[in-house]
């Protein structure tokens, strides 16, 4: 079965002549392992994702094909970029940017100083990536902090969006998607209500991430997975004075525009990039103590439990309805 090309290469001589594959394992999944590799000519380091065809589940192949179609199509500084692609009878080998800087929230917690201006700069980069995807008629569908990686460990590092496994290329600009997918906590209410959705779901996710970046906890929560999803469907959130007293009205205005319940009235990525917050955000109030206090490991663990339970609920939702957007793949 050919996933990438009609003529898979017989062996990896071509890959190994160009790249030195290291033993540094960057990640392991159910059907893939990611290692660091180095271009022998330039010395540049990349991430090499090795996907075993033997263990890739039926249905996951569609996700991989979509992800590769998207990686081939996109070219933007705030999106992880495809550099090379090889296929043998046994596996698929994907060479992409190596993001050495780590995940968004992990890096924020290491900062000595972190102001509204810093947050605005990161949200702006995120929105630039989303605006580009939407111009290409691609909906990401799984924007969350774990999929936002820093290119380097430097303070002014570029932020990059990654993981296009759940993304969808729209057939037309107003194509309606139905599949319940995404990550609980970041998923838009219209996905849960099963009435169909489109690009605005990504802006909702950006709204949740922005809110969390400024105070250290998410706008929607519940004692259990049903409570969390109910909280999102209700769409109600607030700004606690203790945590939001020093944060500007412009920041709250942008969040309100991103978390607008009606997807038709929700701000677009292009519009959001012009928001006043990106000009006015204050550089003098250090938010790090508050964010660090609220993003405590205990909370992170609790959220992880909710997340797993919520994923199960989303799977159930997806199975319980007739999928009409040709997303026949298993989602998680």
From TrEMBL:
PROSITE patterns linked to this entry: PROTEIN_KINASE_ATP, PROTEIN_KINASE_DOM, PROTEIN_KINASE_ST
Annotated SMART domains: S_TKc
Taxonomic superkingdom: Eukaryota
SUPFAM superfamilies noted in UniProt: Protein kinase-like (PK-like)
A single MF term (Gene Ontology): ATP binding
Protein known as: 24584_t:CDS:1
Family: Belongs to the protein kinase superfamily.
InterPro entries registered for this protein in UniProt: Kinase-like_dom_sf, Prot_kinase_dom, Protein_kinase_ATP_BS, Ser/Thr_kinase_AS
The entry's keywords: ATP-binding, Kinase, Nucleotide-binding, Serine/threonine-protein kinase, Transferase
Transmembrane regions: none
Domain Protein kinase: 20-278
Highest classification ranks of the organism: Eukaryota, Fungi, Fungi incertae sedis, Mucoromycota, Glomeromycotina
Annotated residues for binding of ATP: 49
Record Gene3D superfamilies: Phosphorylase Kinase, domain 1, Transferase(Phosphotransferase) domain 1
Pfam family, one: Pkinase
